[in-house]
Design a protein that fits this description.
The chain is of the alpha+beta class. Helix content is about 35%, strand content about 25%. The protein contains 14 helices and 21 strands. The longest helix is centred in the middle third of the chain and has 22 residues. The radius of gyration is 25 Å and the shape is elongated. It binds one RNA strand through α12 and α13.
RNA sequence: CGGAAUGUGGUGUAACGGCUAACAUCCCUGGUUUGGGACCAGGUGACUCCGGGUUCGAAUCCCGGCAUUCCGACCA
């Protein structure tokens, strides 16, 4: 893509109504636009990153479930069945928008904050026999939660993207096997996104969902809201909320000897067991024709929050730094020249064309801007690799290649560059 | 939901209760410039968040909303 056709712009000043690193940098670089507290539009660059994150998640989820897309609107009645219409205080409900609608329908709907109430009846319709189990459905969708206090930019919003997966099983053992498999798949996702090394499976309370422990995926991050007790040797962590004496005794661990760190929860998994299947009277028929309880699990990852955490972890004083796997573009091609018909532009255009042909994702800064502005923008936008073409670089024998995250750069020939990026793959 | 702070051109800031609300940036015009947010000249753009009140006079003081941020509670 040509930067002259990228309709968003960078800005020097931080917005005064943002304090968090992720919101400041993503706004300054033109990735997001704030609509309200905790509600952000994904601008073209931001959408590219979000889509990449979601596609990574999608690819891994396809190994353990079927993707579907449920509705954001749901009927009140289904929430009444589980009693959660009253107990979930972040639930958002619609109202008839104006007087006119009073004559027609005064129906109000619940905006989905989670989808157990919707998926359970769906599974009930299709998975009624032991032959149909286990089954698992997932979706990636916009969720709504009326957080009492939205904060920290993308880390805690009122409208955000969420991948939610629900699994259905013949018994607790089968659920446990799947549950452990889901843990592994989750870690594969976080590894691919580039934060695996700092992400710990963390024992947490089950909340309203379960009397058992649930598991959170906590990424070390100062901007996070959670404190976790870290047992690096055994590669496990404990959410502060469960670090009481009873738990210590039950698990045979000593919390006082563990490191305490700030972290951000980027995913979680809950054994729901029969909580929701019972609410909907969802049973299956086993080999002998007997009705049996269905066991359920639910598994969430927040792509928007993940995006915010990556920013928080990798950014420096100059701007964003994206891991290659989720960067909006792979290469930032920059041309510096006063002469639009000169050699530098010709070479840059040639590289741009070759990259496009080989499907290398390139952002080409073809604008008539000063060198300083182009470099500053490039650092702010944070594409992992930068290629500069200028009269100076051509004199030295080619183009300058520089990684965003390191200071050093090198001059390579145009042929070497094209070989690096356009060699036939696999 | 409790507490605190802040609301002024698109953005960031300034202005003692008193002149036509100032500066920078962005944007537009013209010219110069091109390896780290260049320079010169000119220009567009604000009922100072909303509603009341005090005052001869309010961006400024008072009251009430609303919004945003931060601290806390909450986080199914």
């Amino acid at each position: 893509m040509r930067q002259s056709k990228l309709y968003t712009k960078t800005r020097k000043d931080a917005p005064k109504d943002e304090v968090s690193t992720n919101a400041i940098l993503l706004t300054r670089a033109g990735y997001i636009h704030k609509e309200m507290a905790g509600v952000y539009t994904m601008l073209p660059l931001g959408l590219r990153v979000l889509t990449k994150i979601e596609n990574i998640i999608r690819r891994h989820m396809d190994e353990i479930g079927n993707e579907l897309l449920m509705t954001a609107l749901s009927p009140k009645e289904t929430w009444e069945k589980t009693g959660r219409l009253e107990t979930i205080d972040v639930l958002m409900k619609t109202m008839p928008a104006n007087k006119v609608s009073e004559d027609k329908s005064s129906a109000s709907y619940v905006l989905g904050s989670t989808h157990e109430e919707m998926i359970t009846p769906i599974a009930q319709e299709y998975s009624r026999s032991y032959k149909d189990l286990p089954s698992a459905f997932y979706q990636i969708q916009t969720k709504f939660r009326n957080e009492a206090r939205a904060k920290s930019g993308l880390l805690r919003g009122r409208e955000f993207r969420m991948k939610d997966l629900y699994s259905f099983h013949k018994n607790a053992d089968d659920l446990n096997v799947y549950y452990d498999e889901a843990k592994k798949v989750y870690m594969n996702i976080f590894n691919e996104v580039g934060i695996g090394a700092d992400t710990f499976i963390t024992l947490a309370g089950g909340g309203d969902f379960t009397k058992d422990f649930s598991h959170e995926f906590q990424t070390l991050c100062d901007a996070g809201e959670d404190t976790i007790f870290l047992d690096r040797k055994n590669n496990i962590a404990y959410n502060k909320e469960v670090t009481d004496e009873a738990t210590a005794k039950k698990l045979g661990v000593d919390f006082t000897k563990m490191e305490q760190v700030r972290a951000c929860e980027i995913g979680n998994i809950f054994p729901l067991n029969t909580k929701f299947s019972k609410a909907f009277d969802y049973t299956y028929v086993d080999e002998t024709g007997t009705k049996q309880d269905v066991y359920m699990g639910c598994y969430g990852i927040g792509p928007t929050r993940l995006m915010g955490v990556v920013v928080e972890k990798f950014a420096d004083e100059k701007g964003l730094i994206w891991p290659e796997s989720i960067a909006p573009f792979s290469v930032h091609l920059i041309v510096l020249s006063r002469d639009k018909d000169g050699e530098a532009y010709k070479v840059a255009e040639k590289i741009y064309e070759a990259f496009n042909k080989s499907h290398v994702e390139v952002l080409f800064d073809d604008r008539e801007a000063s060198a300083g502005e182009k470099f500053a923008d490039s650092d702010l936008i944070g594409i992992p690799m930068r290629v500069v073409v200028s009269d100076k670089s051509l004199e030295k024998g080619g183009v300058e290649l520089k990684e965003r995250k390191v200071d050093a750069s090198e001059i390579i020939t145009v042929d070497q560059l094209l070989q690096m990026y356009t060699r036939p793959c696999c």
